[in-house]
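User: Please run a holo structure prediction.
Assistant: Happy to. Please share the sequence and the ligand.
User: Here you go; the ligand is glycinamide ribonucleotide.
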Amino acid sequence: MKKKLALAILLSGGGSNAQAIMDACRSGALDAKVRIVGADRLSAGGLDRAAAMGVDHFVVDYKGILQDTEASSVYPPPPDLDLGDVLKKQHLFPEDRASEEGCVSEKVRHFFMRRAAAERMLLDALLPFEPDLIVLAGFMRTLSPYFIDRMQQPGELPKIMNIHPALLPAFPGTDGYGDTFRHGCRVGGCTVHFVDYGEDSGPIVGQAAFPILPGDSLEDVKRRGLEEEWKLYPSCIQLYAEGRLVLENRPQRSGAVRRVVRVLS
Ligand code: GAR
């Protein structure tokens, strides 16, 4: 029998996407198994869903780790953190990227040191489960190059997927449906993409759109969007499981080259 894709899910909230993925695994619609679910906060409802499905789960308390100060460090940065390398690679603060470590602001340095401390704990919890794919399902934390580089090698097919509540590249950030609604869009949508060093900027795997009708409230948009997410995410993970996703370089008008996903038939 073909080996099932081993999934690790990270989440911050209610976990309806995690539920859809666990259900799809259980029904056989998805050739995958959720090995572990992790959250950045104890109050994440998705942890209860994992427990109810008999899936192992853990919490890394980001809040406490990010508040830690260097003077009284309870959670020191990991010994293998190369901060200069992370600062050069990151695209989360594009105006504050380093050609040399010394150039960036103290705030950005501190941000990535704290992230790495939390991300080391994530890795320690995740890696024993040997995930083939990390699935971000409402995980409201950006991942830094420290974490990403320990999950995937350059040139390999990426191993971290995210779902975003907007039709990227429009409305990246923390409130995709809210931004779509406030902008007055007539169409909303959701996007599954691979994670790169920027915010919601990685290669797009799949998208689903839905109409926004006159009289719709933000709650209507969120509800319709989530219903699309629950179908889209398992279908994109299934493409990954089937080995049908490849990356190719596509030149952009600016002259830059962008990595895009091609789906093999
Ligand atoms: C989903 O709408 C997902 O797209 C969004 O959080 C929600 C999680 O819902 N993710 C992001 O905004 C990531 N930046 P859920 O906990 O019910 O799956």
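The pocket of glycinamide ribonucleotide is lined by residues 11, 13-17, 46, 137-138, 140, 163-165, 174, 176, 190, 226, 229 (CB under 6 Å).
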